[in-house]
User: Fold ATP-binding cassette domain-containing protein from Sphaerisporangium aureirubrum.
Amino acid sequence: ESTIEVTDLRKRYGPAVALDGMSFTVTPGHVTGFVGPNGAGKSTAMRVILGLDAPDGGTALIGGRPYRSLSRPLTHVGALLDAGALQPSRSARNHLLWLAHSQGLTARRVDEVIEQAGLREVARRRADGFSLGMRQRLGVAAALLGDPSVLILDEPFNGLDPEGIVWMREFLAGLAAQGRAVLVSSHLMSELQDTAGHVVVIGRGRVIADAAVHELLAGV
Ligand code: ADP
Ligand code: ADP
Assistant:
């Protein structure tokens, strides 16, 4: 099961409240948008779901279990956090080969995700020379290596040109249509409204709205 269930998450960093009782569900088969201004708590929530940060309270479960108790976390959950930080000093393909090797995956799988993420033409170039847009694609390719049923992507539209945004939208919609649960954050509703069936809008660590896009746009 690949439903993500976040219940009453709370997290403070010193005096700063990052998560203030946040609850939402991400269902498989859809892109769920996770929208809010910078500082709203999107990355923190994603890091907690991925077991990279401990919450002060509440739970984040994937298929009913915390990330850290999943038996095969990397084949269950793929993540992209901060693609801007991704600057491997080797070719894109070698970077993916290295990640695949560490997960016990084959070179054939690497070539599949290179193809899927539209990276064939740049796969042999040094990835530290990539534009942010190409790093986003590389990050998504890396997240897909284990063929996960859950994808958690933090701001994958950042740094993409208009054509890249359209490509990423269609790519994510396709991944969700294959039955994956896909949670995608953005500070811009406009990037997600044509892709996400459902949007969770957050502000100051809380859920402000949680509805189908057509309901949100109708002002419900
Ligand atoms: P978003 O991803 O929506 O931009 P974040 O989750 O990054 O929001 O941040 C939520 C709040 O928590 C902000 O006020 C931010 O400054 C604070 N915060 C996040 N990570 C840290 C950290 N490691 N140390 C201190 N404060 C943090
Ligand atoms: P489709 O992709 O078939 O157009 P939608 O993505 O709009 O369908 O969602 C179908 C139903 O599932 C809607 O009622 C929607 O509100 C609900 N849904 C989708 N994602 C979520 C979610 N993350 N949490 C709760 N309900 C959701």
